[in-house]
């Protein structure tokens, strides 16, 4: 029989990471010859030979491939529940969180905010938020895919350890390389200011996406070029003892907006060691949650409190972004220092 074209809507799609994951997982079906996901209408176009199967049967078969990654296929577009009531809890919690950070910084216990640079404490916190956000679906998908492959061979622990070692080491080394590149280009004050504004804008977009109430901003999120992300994701399909290590390295190149905003900042450090430590500590912040994903079925996304969490995280990210932009304006001399940071 000839190949036929089908279109399904993807429930659970949030960002560019979801586009990569859904396409890659659907293409694992031997019946599929073409798959292309769209964030614009949360859909996936598929071409393949499914014999005499009805569309509903095909939907069930393909939906099973993405189920573990938090997605389902449907013939109807998803009606999103924006859960505005979640803000009643999210706003106060976020304000308390930021106030606590400011107080800790003011009394010198931690240096989370700095006029000229993002501290390692802030990098760690952003790593925690990133690991719990929906944008980490692609990394979680890699971990789950790799875990399933090696679990069949009876090896559950060693691959996970190698993955996390590969991730931490690669973020240190590659972060250092990006930082060193910044020194080669000798970034001046204006360039540093522009990078600071870009980082702030990227973080505002990511924070807004976490609120999950403005659908159009999801398409504005920065992402790694698709061809690089796809090849990085394909590494998890290799069946070799060093595959987990390579998968850990590949996560540096995946379309996580948080990772890319940190990479942009790292360029502005102009230092191998500062860049290396920034990316390493960011990766360290993601470690606890990714470790839980590795060894269990942990997923904040499926929790009944996910709406409150993501809205709280979104507000915190937006606040960090605004502080970063204001600090950039201080550095350039356009405004006076505020809160004595």
Protein described:
The protein has 341 residues and is α+β, with helices and mostly antiparallel strands. It has 2 domains: 4-74, Alpha-Beta Plaits (2-Layer Sandwich), CATH 3.30.70.100; 84-332, no CATH class. Helix content is 59%, strand content 7%. It has 12 helices and 4 strands. Strands 2-3-1-4 form a 4-stranded antiparallel β-sheet.
Please tag this protein with its features.
341 residues; alpha+beta; Alpha-Beta Plaits; 2 domains; four-stranded antiparallel beta sheet; 12 helices; 59% helix; 7% strand
Q: Given the structure, what is the number of helices?
A: 12
Number of domains: 2
Nearest-integer average pLDDT: 77
> How are the strands of the biggest sheet laid out side by side?
2-3-1-4
- Largest pleated sheet: 4 strands, antiparallel
Contiguous uncertain segments of 5+ residues? 112-116
Overall shape: globular
N-to-C series of helices and strands: EHEEHEHHHHHHHHHH
Q: Roughly what percent helix?
A: 55-70%
Global Rg: 21 Å
User: How many β-strand stretches?
Assistant: 4
Oligomer: single chain
